[in-house]
Amino acid sequence: MNKLFAKLEVENLSENERAMLQYIQENLSLIARMNLHDLASKLFVSDTIVVRFCQKLGLAGFSELKYLIKSELALEKKRHTVFREQIDQQINDFKYFLTFAPLDQLHTIVQLLCNDQPLYIHGRSLSSIPAKYLHTVLNTLNRRCILVEDLHLVKSISRTIQPGSTILITSVNVPTEIYQEVFDNSRKNQAKTILITSERTKQTEKLADYCLFSNDLPLTYNETDVNSRINMLSLVQLIIELASKELLATEQPEL
Known about the structure:
It is a single chain. This protein has helices spanning 3-6, 15-26, 28-31, 36-43, 47-56, 62-99, 103-114, 128-140, 151-160, 176-188, 202-205, 230-251; strands spanning 119-123, 146-148, 166-171, 192-197, 210-213, 220-221, 224-225. It has 255 residues and is an alpha/beta fold. The chain folds into two domains: 15-93, Arc Repressor Mutant, subunit A (Orthogonal Bundle); 102-251, Rossmann fold.
């Protein structure tokens, strides 16, 4: 049932009245331009019956019904406009992201991910989604890697990590005070670090050996992180596609 009529009193309508209601629901735009007599003619009833029908719905009469219909149509148009603007903004942001995607750095990162050295992938909370996705696909491609969601565990790994190993971290907002230890320990042990994050700052640029910035728009609601991760997921998808070609090529038998 249309949202407009969900709050009205429609339970006790007769079969004919339900047929009238169905016609109104299916022709809101048309009825918004009608007068009382026009609607009565379309329904093959008298003006009085239409008024009584409106009153049975809990309304004062046809004028109130028409007012509610116009208000609902205006609100629906506004919702559609806002939705369209949001979609257009996402498309423009994604085009900008693709234009400035760091392809050279992506190639180097893919080489690291495809070697035979230990690989650890870390992401927390919502940022664990791209981390899990990357981990799942790489393992499917027989590139064995370890998903580490616990912060204390990834810190512990960084203290004893083998030289040549790699730690990849996905995080929209990188708390330096939390992750600095991981990057410092990894460098000390001659391991490589990769950071995929949203916002480029002088501080984040210096954290890892390789940094990829998705430029997703930072957003919070009621102090909750609702940041878009579309570009971050797109970065991960690019890495996966490049890594897939690299890994599958190494598995092909020599002729």
